[in-house]
Each structure stands twice: as C-alpha cells, then as structure tokens.
Amino acid sequence: MINTIDYVRDMIYGLDALVELDDNTKAPAINLDNAATTPPFVQVAEEIQCQLVHYGSIGRGKGQKSEHTTEVYTRGRDIVKNFLGAGSDDYTVFYTQSTTDGLNKLASALIKCPYDIVLTTRMEHHANDLPWRERCKTVYADVDGKGRLKIKDIVRLLEAHHGKIKYVCVTAASNVTGYVNDIHRIAKLAHRHGAKIIVDGAQIVSHRAVNILGESPEENIDFFAFSAHKMYSPFGGGAVVGLKAVLDKHIPEFYGGGIVESVYDDSSCYGNAPDSYEAGSPNYPGVVGMLKAIEILQSLGFGYVKRYEQFLMRKTLAGLKKLPGVVLYGDCDEIADRVGVIPFNLQGIPPKVVAEYLAGKHAIAVRHAAFCAHPYVRRLTGESEKGKDCHPPTGMVRVSFGVYTNEADVDAFLEAIAAMLGGDRRMLNDYSSGKSGGQRIVNKPHDRG
Questions:
Q1: Domain with CATH 3.40.640.10 in the chain
Q2: Buried b (16+ CB within 10 A) or exposed e, 366-375
Q3: So what's the pLDDT on residue 27?
Q4: What are phi and psi of 281, to 5 degrees?
Q5: Mean pLDDT for each 10-residue chunk of the chain (449 residues)?
Q6: Residue 389 and residue 391: Cα distance in Å, rounded?
Q7: What backbone torsions phi and psi does residue 140 show, to the nearest 5 degrees?
C-alpha cells in the first residue's frame, strides 16, 4: 500500500507547493478539502498543454486543427458513456461547466409548468434543490437520526402523489457525510410510479465505480450529472449523461450559436441533443482534462480507491474518537456506505476558527460552515432555522480525502486537532478575535463543495 500511495502522489500536480503560515514561515500544504476540489493529475495538465497546440474551433471549421479538436471533443462523449456504463444508444452526453451547470440546464429544459412535482431529499447539495424549487413544486424525502436517506420516505411520497411526481432527484453520495445512496433501488421506485430519476454524481465519480445501467431496465438511471474538478481535472469541465429521446423533446433556457438548424426573421429551428444543450464555444480544455482524468482513475481501479479510502476513514475516525471534545456526525462505526468525507465539530470552538487555525498554524486545508447543504447540516447538528431570517447555519468542519492522501497527512491533522484541544487556547483566542492572519483561508460557505 505504501509503494502504491507513493506512486499515486507522484501523479498529483502541486503536492510540493509551499504555503505561507501566520508566522511568515512556509510549509508544504496538506489538502484535506478534496470534496470541494481536487488537485489535477500531472498527466491531465500535460494532456491539456499538448492538445492546446492543435486547438481550433469545434464543429465550425475545416482547417486541420479545427477537425482534430472536433474529433477529440466528439469522441469524448463515448469515453464518458463508457466510464458510466452507458453504452446503450438510448443515452447521449452533453458537456457542462460543472454539476451545478448540468442540473440547472436539466431543470430549465425538463420543467415546463410550475405545477410539476419533483421529489428530492433533505440530503441534497443546493445545486440539486434550488433549480427545482425555483421552477416547480418540490417535495422532500427526509433523513434519519444518523443522516442516512429514508428510502421509506421516498416510497411514501411517491404513493401519496399518485403518479404525479415527474422526477426524483437524488445525490449519489453526500458531500457532507459521504453516504452513498442506492440509486438503482431509488430508480426502480421512481419508474414504478411513472417518474424519471436524475442523479447528482458530483461526489461519487472519483470514489466509486458508477454504472448507469442497473440489473434490470427498471433500475436504469435516466440522467446523471458530474463535475471534473472533483476528479483531478481543472478548468471547469463536466457532463450530463441522459436519455436522448427525452432530451430531444426539450431545450434549456440557454441560447446561442451551435444549437440551431436554422434561424429565420421571426422563428428558429433548433437541433437535437447533445448540440441543443451546448450553446456557444465549448470549454475544450475542460473536456480534454476530464477525459484524461477518467482514463487515469480507471487505470488506478476503483477497487483500490475504495479500499484505501476506507482505510484512511477508519484511521481518522479512530484518532478523533480518542480526543475529548470532538463531536462526530453520521454513522462512524458502519462506514462501508461512506466515501472519504468526515464532518465534525470541536466543543466550544467555532468551525471557522478551527479551519483558520489548521491552515494558519499547520498548513492543513479543510472546509467549514454548511457545505451548500443547509437543511441537511441543520438536521445533523440540531441547529434551528432561527425564524428563517436569513441566517445560515453555523455548520461544522469537514475533512475529505483524495486518492493521494497518505497516513502522514492524517497524522498531521490528528496532531493539530489534539494540540487545539490540549492547550493551544491563546492561539485560538487570537483567531476568534481576528488578530491572527488565518483568515487568508478561502473557505466560503457558498462555494460548491
């Protein structure tokens, strides 16, 4: 395992970068905020640089560079489909800037009436909640005391609405607790009641193998959105894999060049998917990087990724459980259904102070606040909505692992938490009063993560 992780760490861009601490010294950065954004693979950066040499307009020219770029871009759709096991011709792929972009395009295309009903959950990232609630009626399946999704609540809501729910929108893996949902079981329930399923795949694609096709057609996923910046590729790439027949019948509220067959003085004739979902000049570097990242993750093998991640989870949880004053959330004993995400709090120390201390004193990057999942975080922490007067929840601190995270990173984190709880109170008081420079950390609660 040690040899493997050393090999993987050599594949990551920027791990040797130094960051400035509060005392003006420098130290190697330790990134435990991978659920928000992962660093790129070296080969991803190299592939982007290589392809830029031959960069040309996509689908709009007959020059050699244009034709090469168009071929790479078009062939990439099949790579994405194969990555998600969607080899069937029933599916197509349109590229996006992110999962958020993809889900918003789906919502703007598929929802045609404010009386349409969408079933989503209290576990969702805002990106798989707000696009629906702003356009139609939304109903929510809740979570249990440990934060797991209540499948029985999905059944109850589907039955209560007598086939009127059009879409069931659910995350494949939570960005707060890391819980992995049984999307194929949920798909079967949705289809049984005449609904289609839309999956937010942002947090799953770098952790677990995903197959859109279930063991039976009733278990197939209809639409799946994901981002590249959480799977070791920069430049805002992403994609949606979805049923072509459905996408062809709709068009998102995003117009421009490349999506039409013809435009007349008083009318226009739009093309079919995927072109109708990709107005404007495509993000070619984002697509190139994403395709290379897919190749690398597949070569590493998701079996290895899962086993190693579970090892890191158990080591970290075991260390945190030994420290008095640590508050853990979710099921921290049965963790087989969790990807590498651990939310926690320290008694008496605000999450923001914890995050700033870790970065400013120890060069450890974590996340704090409510991770763009406010209703879910409130349920986990027990914090009220305070009269709904626009107060975001205080939230928690989150550590999240990448394929390159090693035991030394975990040890450094645990030692830093022990130091905070064991007497470094004067330093913490400086952070609380704003005297420390730790606020250079960028951990904004409205960022996707």
A1: 45-298
A2: bbbbbbbbbb
A3: 97
A4: -75, 130
A5: 81 94 97 98 98 92 93 97 95 98 98 97 98 98 98 98 98 98 98 98 98 98 98 94 97 92 95 96 96 98 97 98 97 98 97 97 98 98 83 95 98 97 67 50 37
A6: 6
A7: -125, 125
Give the pLDDT score at 446.
37
Query: How far apart (Å, rounded) are the C-alpha atoms in residues 169 and 65?
Result: 40
The structure tokens listed for 18 are 């130094």
pLDDT at 61: 80
The pair of three-digit structure tokens given for residue 412, joined into one six-digit string = 């450094």
**Are 168 and 154 spatial neighbours (Cβ–Cβ below 8 Å)?**
yes
pLDDT, position 3: 64
Q: Where are the beta strands (DSSP E) in 207-349?
A: 223-227, 238-243, 260-263, 268-270, 326-328, 341-346
Residues of the chain with CATH 3.90.1150.10: 2-37+301-440
Q: How many CB atoms are located within 10 Å of the residue 197 CB? A: 23
> In the CATH scheme, what is the code of domain 45-298?
3.40.640.10
The SS3 of residue 378 is: helix
d(CA 141, CA 160): 12
CA distances from 413 to 286, 336, 419, 424, 449 (A): 32, 22, 10, 15, 20
Q: Which CATH architecture has domain 2-37+301-440?
A: Alpha-Beta Complex (3.90)
